């Protein structure tokens, strides 16, 4: 028997259910249409010579549907605006007036600190970003001479400068250096961090130029590309590198690509004095042999291996001594000691960067394995 028509009570119940569903399914009441917002992909923060804060925004310009098929783009793909004021909120308010649309940073992927801001301190900028729910804390961070100059440089084959910056970070393994990580490290045990440096190298080209070293909120050093490799290896963060060396008694050079590394930090207390052992193992690929050595002979491979270990030890040792001079524990030694010696850490932490870390004895051990010597015997 089929279901009959609803009686009066059933109709009332159905009506109440319909009304209740309208209350629950309220919809996206706070949704913003694309033509109502300014889509920000990158933020630059710098300090001017007179002490003001300069905020620069990179706004992505959505491509029109009729241009999406590969035709000529009209109106450009990005817009860069800057404003100066006594602090970041005031500068942002000025930018809001210029834009005429609501600033939306939900798709922001890059933050660039100007070097003047980095040298005087980034605490204000980090504090501001940490308090803004719309700002993405997983945005990749850079330092540059001028954020505005970086944002207005669009490399060939790229749509926006922010896209180019993110790709550079991905290639170099810097995508983990985010706003959140920088904030965590400058307020952590070591109170030190590193941020990649980006520079303009041509009319339409950008490149990375090592890393900026921070002690607390201030940039205290700039390591070039070769120097930063040792730092990143000690931090146990992936970075490739090439080591060139001469073999005693041989003419010409041997070159090797450092392909895989694993670093262990081993803390010890000798009496009350802290000591750190850096133990790095490296799998390398021989990329060039400019000598007359026959690589089929194990003894020759051993000679190359020992010399490469010596070169890597020297590079790591040099990096340690430089950061000890900077009084900036960007390696994270503090966290390692804190975990293993929590009671002793309470005594050391107050003077860690000022006295303990700079005077610490550090032993560097390197073990190299040549995974691929090449297809030829020379």
Number of strands: 13
> Over the alpha carbons, how many angstroms does the gyration radius reach?
28 Å
How does the major sheet shape up? 6 strands, mixed
Order of helix and strand elements from N to C terminus: HEEEHEEHHEHHHEEEHEEEHHHHE
Can you put this structure into words, describing what you see?
This protein is an alpha/beta fold and 378 residues long. The protein folds into 2 domains: 34-62 and 76-223; 224-377, Nutrient germinant receptor protein C, domain 3 (GMP Synthetase, Chain A, domain 3, 2-Layer Sandwich). Helices cover 34% and strands 32% of the residues. It contains 12 helices and 13 strands. The strands form 3 sheets. Strands 1, 2, 3, 4, 5 and 6 form a 6-stranded mixed β-sheet that branches. Helix 8 crosses helix 9, helix 9 (298-326) runs antiparallel to helix 12 (352-359) and helix 10 (333-340) crosses helix 11 (342-348). The protein is globular. 32% of the residues are buried. Residues 26-30 and 65-75 have low confidence and may be disordered. Residues 209-373 form the Spore germination GerAC-like C-terminal domain. It is found in: Membrane. Belongs to the GerABKC lipoprotein family. Keywords: Germination, Lipoprotein, Membrane, Palmitate, Signal. One of its GO terms (cellular component) is membrane.
